[in-house]
Write a structure and sequence with these properties.
This protein is of the alpha/beta class and 328 residues long. The chain is built from 11 helices and 13 strands. A 5-stranded mixed beta sheet has the order 1-7-6-4-5, sandwiched between helices. It has a 4-stranded mixed beta sheet with strand order 8-13-12-11, sandwiched between helices. Bound molecules: oxa(dethia)-CoA (UT7). Oxa(dethia)-CoA binds next to α2, α6 and α8.
Amino acid sequence: MRAAITATGHYLPPDVYPNAYFERQLDTTDAWIRSRTGIAERRFASAGGTSDLIVPAARRCLDARGISPAAVDCIIVATMTPDRLCPSTAAVVQRKLGAIHAWGFDLAAACSGFVYGLIVATKLIESGAARRVLLSGADRMSSVVNPEDRATAVLFGDGAGTVLIEPVEDESVGILDYVCHMNGEGESSLYIPAGGSVEPASAASVGEKRHYVVQDGPAVYKAAVIGMAEVTEEILKRNDMTAADLAWLVPHQANRRIIEAVAKRLGLGLDRVIINLDRYGNTVAATIPIALSEWNERGRFAHGDRVVLSAFGAGFTAGSVFLRWATV
Ligand code: UT7
């Protein structure tokens, strides 16, 4: 049995923060942000949790497929900004959506979370354990980014993308293969020091702002170019393809220069690479499903299109999925 993405939806909060906003707040410039990252603006939610980003994205996805939340049997939420450490955001989404027959869980793999989640969802479908999996990649990064730290504040945004994964009869389309890597040596390059079990939240941890994301940008940059290129090259090779066979590469959207470097290494023209980080910044687990949903809603995917999704993020984690688009 083959699993395929049969519907998509996304949600971005309405409040837009252009680079000029940070020019007023921090020692930075629009020119620096654009030239070093490719980002022009991002969205921040004014209230609510990650579940409040997911629910409208999920409704849009289910409406596109014409099914009710009660028809979903599993909910997976890939996020590094859960509503709370307990219970899972998947449980909150289940209640808010009214997906009364669904079980589910959160998956923590930062920027690679959606790709990892897609693999888990595929295996649930292929094994017959689930018939309709609702997978969201979503992050409210504004809840964990220090607004006074110019090295991170300008990079991230809030958003959610959701896909529905179902079995399809046609074996020639759907989710065909994957490659995943992880290197825990990356922990100190991108992490949140406090608020977990190692350093529980305290007045001191909050006072020292240790509940915010810390990133060694240049170290992550170097690892991301190599890591994302490696998983993408590996998945192409395993499937006897070259970049020329791809209709679309959907890379994680952290930095336009990372995407360009990966495309160059693959010999892939940017006209076949989906890029939207200029408008949304790095929405972490949400970047790939938002891109998929935008392209799908614009009718840019044709049945059978060869598509590779590639991600790299904290951990370090990296992953690629090869699929052939299924129009159902
Ligand atoms: O999605 C998860 C994975 N995350 C990523 O993939 C992010 C990877 N890293 C990056 O995207 C890039 O490293 C950054 C965009 C964060 C930085 O770009 P860079 O080319 O690596 O940095 P750079 O070497 O051009 O510049 C570093 C300098 C530092 O100043 P000094 O020490 O050279 O004087 C920073 O203090 O840029 C400074 N800087 C800024 N300057 C103006 C850092 N942030 C800013 C800023 N505005 N917002």
